[in-house]
Amino acid sequence: MILWWGKKKQPDPKTGETPIEPLKSGEAPASPLASLDRRLFGEAPVAPQPVAPDDDDPIGLRKAAARIAAERAAEAAAREESVLHKLSEGLRRSSSRLAEGLAGLSKRKIDRESLDELEELLITSDMGAKVAARIAKAFSKDRFDREISGDEIKAALASEIAAILKPREQVVDFSEGPKPRIVLFVGVNGSGKTTTIGKIASKLSAQGADIVLAAGDTFRAAAVEQLKVWAERANARFISKPSGADAAGLAYEAVELARNENRDLVLIDTAGRLQNKTQLMDELSKVVRAIRKIDPTAPHDVILVLDATVGQNALGQVEAFRNTAGVTGLVMTKLDGTAKGGVLVAIAEQHPLPIHFVGVGEKAEDLHPFSADTFARALVGLDD
C-alpha cells in the first residue's frame, strides 16, 4: 500500500501478518480501505458487505480478511494501471524516441553490431554512457545470437532499467519522525519547485495533515503569490515576507510558528539557486543553519526538484545540491514536456538518493509516487 500520510499497521512479530481488529457480535467488517486508501486516492467508499458465518469462522473474520486482501490487490492493480497510462502519455516523447530505435533491432539476431546500436540509442536517450554500457551488457545475456521481437526487446529493456531504478524507489511517509516535520525544497530556477510543493501540500492536507507553507523564495514575487494560491487550495497556514527579505529569518519564523501552533509539517520553498553561484548556495546553507537553531535535527527532509527537460545537466545539479544542502530525496518534474526522461535512470545509477515523486503535468493528480517498474515500462512504451 502506498501511503502519502498516515501510519501503517505494524505486523505481528511472530506471524508476520498485519492484525485485524476483532468484530463485535453481528457486526459487518469495515474495510480499512474505506478510511485510508479511498481517502488517499479520492475514491467513493463502498458499503461493507455482510459476511455469512460458518462453523469454522463463526464471526466471518477469515472471510473478511480474505475479502479485504482481494479488494486491496484489485484496487492496487487498478491504480498501477492508471498511473502507467498517465506516465506513458507523459513520457510519450521519450518512449517514442526509444521505440523508433528499438524497431530497427527487432527481428534481427542480437550480435555485436546490434548491441552497439542499442548502447548508442540509450546514450542519445539521456541515460548516459555508463548506464548504456551496463544495460547493453545485461541485455546480451541469454539473448546473444538470438532473434527477438520488438515487444520482447521492450520487455527486456524495461526489466534492465527497472533493476537500476528499484533501489531508489521510496515513497516518503511525511507522518513519521518529529513534529513538526520540516521539509526543505531546493532546486534551480524553473524546475517546478513551487508547483511541486503546492501539489504535495494539497495531497497531504486532503489526508488530514496540518501544514505550514513558507514562501522562502523571497526574490521572486511570482513564486510567493503562486505558493499563496496553493496554500489557500490546501487550507494550509501560509507565511511570507516582503520581496528581498531574509530567507533564513523567514524559515526560522515558520518553524517557530509551527511549533507554537502544534502543526504537523513545515514545507519551505527556497529561491531557485543556480548551482554554480557560490553566494546563493551559501545563502541556502544559512537557511539550514537558521532552522537548526530551533531543531538541531532539521531539516528532516531536503527534497531536490529537478526539471527533466535539462537532460544531463540534472546530474550536475544533484551533485551541487547534495554537497550544499544534504539532499535526502528527489522529485523529477516536466517529464511530459521532453524526450529526455531517460536522465532519471542516469541519476539513479550515479547517485544513491531516493526518488520520491515524478510529475507529468500541472495538476495535483499529475504528481505520482515513484514506481521503478511503472516508470521503466512507460519509458520504453510498454503501456498495455
What does this structure look like?
The chain is of the alpha/beta class and 384 residues long. The protein has helices spanning 32-41, 61-90, 92-103, 112-127, 129-140, 150-165, 193-206, 221-234, 247-260, 278-292, 313-325, 343-350, 372-380, and strands at 108-109, 147-148, 181-186, 211-214, 237-239, 265-268, 301-307, 329-333, 355-359, 367-369. It has 3 domains: 50-89; 92-168, SRP54, nucleotide-binding domain (Four Helix Bundle (Hemerythrin (Met), subunit A), Up-down Bundle); 181-380, Rossmann fold (3-Layer(aba) Sandwich). The strands form 2 sheets. An 8-stranded mixed sheet has the order 5-4-6-3-7-8-9-10, sandwiched between helices. Strands 1-2 form a two-stranded antiparallel ribbon.
The counted number of beta strands is: 10
Shape: globular
Output the number of helix runs. Answer: 13
The overall average pLDDT, rounded, is 79
Keywords:
13 helices; alpha/beta; globular; 3 domains; Four Helix Bundle (Hemerythrin (Met), subunit A); Rossmann fold; 10 strands; 384 residues
Compact summary:
Helix content is 48%, strand content 11%. It has helices at residues 32-41, 61-90, 92-103, 112-127, 129-140, 150-165, 193-206, 221-234, 247-260, 278-292, 313-325, 343-350, 372-380; strands at 108-109, 147-148, 181-186, 211-214, 237-239, 265-268, 301-307, 329-333, 355-359, 367-369.
